[in-house]
Amino acid sequence: MSVVQVNTPGGNYPIHVASGRLTQLAQSIPADATTIALISNPTVFALYGETVLNALQSTEKKVVQVLIPDGEQYKNSQTLDQIFDALLQNRLDRKAVIVALGGGVVGDISGFAAACFMRGIRFVQVPTTLLSQVDSSVGGKTAINHPLGKNMIGAFYQPIAVEIDIDVLGTLGQREIAAGLAEVIKYGMITDADFLHWCVENAAALTALQPDVVQYAVQRSCELKAYVVSQDERESGLRAILNFGHTFGHAIEAGLGYGEWLHGEAVGCGMIMAAALSAEVCGLAPEHVQLVKDLVAAIGCPTQPPQWEADKWIDLMGLDKKAEGGQLRFVLLPELGKSVVQAVDVTTVKKVLAQF
Ligand SMILES: NC(=O)c1ccc[n+]([C@@H]2O[C@H](COP(=O)([O-])OP(=O)(O)OC[C@H]3O[C@@H](n4cnc5c(N)ncnc54)[C@H](O)[C@@H]3O)[C@@H](O)[C@H]2O)c1
Ligand SMILES: O=C(O)C(=O)C[C@@H](O)[C@H](O)[C@H](O)COP(=O)(O)O
Ligand SMILES: [Zn+2]
């Protein structure tokens, strides 16, 4: 097992990464917990619910099951209300603990429910997609979507533990694997050129989920994300680099309708667009723009964005959380493994959009 530590003003907690970790979940339930609310969706619960319920039995605590509908289109206020209804109907109190079993959708909405319920109860992330293991379960960004923009309603709220069982990745579809790999290669592009080149060399093994390669990719991604969020929990500066590819990516998700493309697919394509913008604005070399495009293609994400008028892109991206005073701000790569966040004028953005 590997352990990565996250230390933030909002809480310190371990990320445990291991094969078979689901069976050890009881270790993360505090002794004073009154009840466990196990939040999942029908797809994940059918696969891993029994294992998790068995693992939690040794805590001798009451477990309340809350199943929410599967899909990005349900990461919204109606589903959040459904969770609150279940917590209240079952008389959960402030010492209850939420266990979020699922991908990023379950993790983000459960974390936000934990942040809001009685003004905050403890929660444990049990991520079951590659994307949620390498990214969404770590760092405490919790949220729901608004029809106008991604993750617009949310809170920074840290879990008390992240429990990663890499065995569960075996039941993922190829699209979900590709989506998770998009966030993996993102870390290499923004902070660690050596890791990026390792991803290039191991692209085939990553898409095939070769166990030792996946274990390393998950661990390294968690280390890199833990480092960034430990420096800047609430995105007052450095943390924004984790948003590379997301200004374009979130526009794709909201513009196509949530769930049409997976988040990681949109981010993969968005990173190609952000690399092209980096070439225009801060001199990323053309061969490195090509490397980004080739790697996104190699992991199986789309490389061609929706064919929209430039004004639609600008309108959608105007609701990005990094925008300030009406000015769009992007994460850009001056070189591979290094990133900056800067404002870019609309004319330059439109010039790059025209390349696609
Ligand atoms: N909080 C953050 O820092 C952060 C970071 C990145 C992404 N996100 C959010 O995460 C969400 C995307 O997460 P995702 O890609 O995990 O999507 P998801 O949660 O929708 O999961 C994708 C699909 O995989 C299924 N699934 C989950 N685990 C499975 C398993 N082990 N085997 C088979 N099927 C399984 C799910 O039921 C779903 O159908 C987006 O809402 C995105 O905004 C948040
Ligand atoms: O943790 C972060 O910070 C990130 O930006 C990670 C992203 O991969 C993730 O998609 C995040 O939810 C996006 O944040 P948002 O603030 O742009 O909604
Ligand atoms: Zn993301």
UniProtKB/TrEMBL annotation:
Residues 66-178 form the 3-dehydroquinate synthase N-terminal domain. Keywords: Amino-acid biosynthesis, Aromatic amino acid biosynthesis, Cobalt, Cytoplasm, Lyase, Metal-binding, NAD, Nucleotide-binding, Zinc. It catalyses: 7-phospho-2-dehydro-3-deoxy-D-arabino-heptonate = 3-dehydroquinate + phosphate. Pathway: Metabolic intermediate biosynthesis; chorismate biosynthesis; chorismate from D-erythrose 4-phosphate and phosphoenolpyruvate: step 2/7. Its cofactor is Co(2+); Zn(2+); NAD(+). Gene3D superfamilies: 3.40.50.1970, Dehydroquinate synthase-like - alpha domain. Its EC number is 4.2.3.4. Zn(2+) binds at E183, H246, H263. Pfam families: DHQ_synthase, DHQS_C. It is found in: Cytoplasm. The keyword Signal does not apply. Binds 1 divalent metal cation per subunit. Can use either Co(2+) or Zn(2+). NAD(+) binds at residues 70-75, 104-108, 128-129, 141, 150. Residues 180-323 form the 3-dehydroquinate synthase C-terminal domain. The keyword NAD applies. Belongs to the sugar phosphate cyclases superfamily. Dehydroquinate synthase family. HAMAP family: DHQ_synthase. Catalyzes the conversion of 3-deoxy-D-arabino-heptulosonate 7-phosphate (DAHP) to dehydroquinate (DHQ). This is 3-dehydroquinate synthase. It comes from Paenalcaligenes hermetiae.
